[in-house]
Amino acid sequence: MPTSTGRRIRAAATPWLFATPAIVFFTLFLIIPIGYAIYLSFRGFRIHGGGAFGRRVQAFVGFDNYLAALTDPEYVAGLGRVLIYGVIAIPSVLGLALLFALLLDIPRVRAQGFSRTAIFLPYAVPGVIASLLWGFLYLPSTSPITYLAERLHTGPLDFFGYPALYFSLANIALWSGVGFNMIIIFTSLRAIPTSIYEAARIDGASELQIAWRIKIPLVAPALVLTGLFSVIGTLQLYSEPATLHPMTATVTTTWVPLMKIYEEAFKNDNLGGAAAASVVLALGILVISLLLLRLFQRRTFGDNV
Fold first, then answer.
1. Count of Cβ atoms closer than 10 Å to residue 127 Cβ
2. Within a domain: residue 227?
């Protein structure tokens, strides 16, 4: 018969046994790469030996890579472009997702399942494919929109010019991101007890009043979650501009920070600089996420958090 001590040991070890595969993969594919990136960020190349016979060797360079990243005009300009893009894309995606979720939650709405699937379906299309699809719709030589504009004599349409380029990119995010956020908000709405709505209707509240005064405040945690996802996704913007880059000279190879990091790492052979820029971007995402989370918590739950 097993002793009580043996049973306690097995009971304590069982959760760790099931968690071991996840811990191993988490360590191998997240912790170790992060640690290696931080290590590389303090390394760089130095020329040893003067003249034509100097050797290019890797050495410890301290915070030189971080200073170079923070003072790089292309990297800073990329952060500015991401900020402008985020100001356009994030409110549009979240606002439309909230609107669709509220409309689908109206009692006796028709074709609810079909509408929910149709709104969510674009999210299933990979980002690169969606970017290619919209890229060809933006190209003057292949765009039916440009063709119609020419026939209607409305003037030339330049989807890749400034400031239209930001709206073109935001449209791709809108098309592919609304469904995912809508599902999260809609699921949160379905978790609200219907007795609250019934009591409000008995008091004479309209569906618009119920949505504004009951539904939106109660799904605030879901809005916070989708807002954080959107902010993080915006700061990590890469596939859309990288896919559109071959189609237009307006989108350069360093148009956003991740494109600049890729350029440094794989084309300029500057792994140290790319690692430092990656660490700076990751720290920026972490700080902004924590600040926004704290701000949303205070606004949503009051000063008791």
1. 18
2. yes
Q: Decide if pLDDT at 184 tops 70.
A: yes
Prediction pTM value: 0.84
Nearest to 208, CA basis, from 93, 290, 85, 103: 103
DSSP letter string, 198-227: HHHHHTT--HHHHIIIIIHHHTHHHHHHHH
Contacts of 200 (CB under 8 A, 6+ apart): 209, 210, 213, 214
Q: Which residues sit opposite 58 in a β-bridge? A: 45
CATH assignment of the domain containing 110: 1.10.3720.10
Asked, for residue 216, whether it belongs to a domain, the answer is yes
Residue 100 lies in domain: 72-269
Please report, to the nearest 10 degrees, the dihedral formed by the alpha carbons of residues 168, 169, 175, 179 taken in order: -150
Listed residue (235, 296, 223, 292) closest to 86, CA to CA? 235
What is the mean predicted confidence (pLDDT) over 189-200? Answer: 88
Residue 4 lies in a domain: no
In the chain, how many domains are there?
1
pLDDT category at 1 given cuts 50, 70, 90 is very low
**Can you read off the two tokens belonging to residue 110?**
């028709």
Determine contact, residues 224/111, Cβ cutoff 8 Å: no
Q: Cis ω on the peptide bond leading into residue 221 (within 30° of 0)?
A: no
Q: Is residue 11 part of a domain?
A: no
The number of helices, as runs of H, and strands, as runs of E, in the chain is 15, 2
String of DSSP letters for 15-84: HHHHHHHHHHHHIIIIIHHHHHHHHHHTEEEEEESSGGG-EEEEEE-TTHHHHHHHT-HHHHHHHHHHHH
Q: Is 91 helix (H, G, I), strand (E, B) or coil?
A: helix
Asked if residues 229 and 173 have their Cβ atoms less than 8 Å apart, the reply is no
Other beta carbons within 10 angstroms of residue 37's beta carbon come to 16
